[in-house]
Amino acid sequence: MRAILRRQRTTLARVSESLRTRIEHASNRPLQRLASVPVWVPFVVVFALMLTGSFVGGWLGAVLLLVPVLFLTWLLYLTWPRLRTPERAMRLAVLALVVAIAVTQALPS
User: Fold this and answer.
1) Which whole number is the average pLDDT over 4-32?
2) What is the value of pTM for the model shown?
3) From CA 15, how far away is CA 36, in angstroms rounded?
4) Which in 37, 46, 80, 93 has the greatest CB count within 10 A?
5) Nearest-10 Cα torsion for 56, 57, 62, 67
6) Do 77 and 93 meet the contact criterion of CB atoms below 8 Å apart?
């Protein structure tokens, strides 16, 4: 029984590792493009989308907020192994806050 559990864990680790490797490999080109633009451009674009989404309201506002959420989630996934616990917690808190604002925009009371 233990041998079966060990084999299953090893298989899951390989599948997980290969998924991470594939995502990292697929992200190389977009990350190179992102690195080629001035540092302030991604910050301004994310900030503008979040600010606009916060003020627009409705489904359009929620979509404008979810675009930066997807972008930041992708970056968080790529940097996760290199982050310490406090850094992970802060990034997750920011994502949770923006998702909460997006839900509030999409489903007003």
Assistant:
1) 77
2) 0.76
3) 32
4) 46
5) 10
6) no
